[in-house]
Amino acid sequence: VGNSCVLTCTTKSNVTMVTWKISPKVGGPCTLGYRADQNKTDKTNCSDSMNWKFRPDRDPTLEIRQVGIAHEGNYTCEVVTTEGNFHEMYYLTVLVPPRLTLYCDDHGNPVCEAAAGKPAARVSWLPGSNFTPEEEGHDNGTVTVLSTLTAYSTNVTNTTCIVSHPAGNQSKSIAC
């Protein structure tokens, strides 16, 4: 999320037409088209963040700037040439790194919150002990994971929460 994404499409000679057909999970479909005989491009129902990266007659690569969760979905490129039709299909999955917060609850137990990540983060503790993570799903597809470290040993002064996520791992330490 927030980065640019580039989807490549087969570069062929004698291109007649190139079409990107985009079906996001959220919102309606959109298309980007190019016709060689008229040297014309067309954009239907696509956001401003989606466009050709280069000139479509030379390179039909699609660029999505500032990727958001709404961009997740199916992307199909069709290249029509004198030799035939060529398709490339992608499914774009958007990763959202969680926001890590670590604090002490009213009972002196460390609480680790990995907020609004996609997919849900995995939470673990050092030193390891008993914990049960709770997950709360949000309407936008993100998940908040809350983990409270119980049976906290009084002779341990510092604990570390480790959040594992495909968009990057994080850790924080606290003494409660």
From TrEMBL:
Source species, domain of life: Eukaryota
Ig-like domain mapped to chain residues: 1-93, 112-175
Keywords for the protein's UniProt record, in alphabetical order: Disulfide bond, Glycoprotein, Membrane, Receptor, Transmembrane, Transmembrane helix
Its membrane topology: Single-pass membrane protein
This protein's GO CC annotations: external side of plasma membrane
Xref: PANTHER family: CELL SURFACE GLYCOPROTEIN CD200 RECEPTOR 2, CELL SURFACE GLYCOPROTEIN OX2 RECEPTOR PRECURSOR
Family indicated by similarity: Belongs to the CD200R family.
Name of the featured protein: MOR1A protein
Source species taxonomy: Eukaryota, Metazoa, Chordata, Craniata, Vertebrata
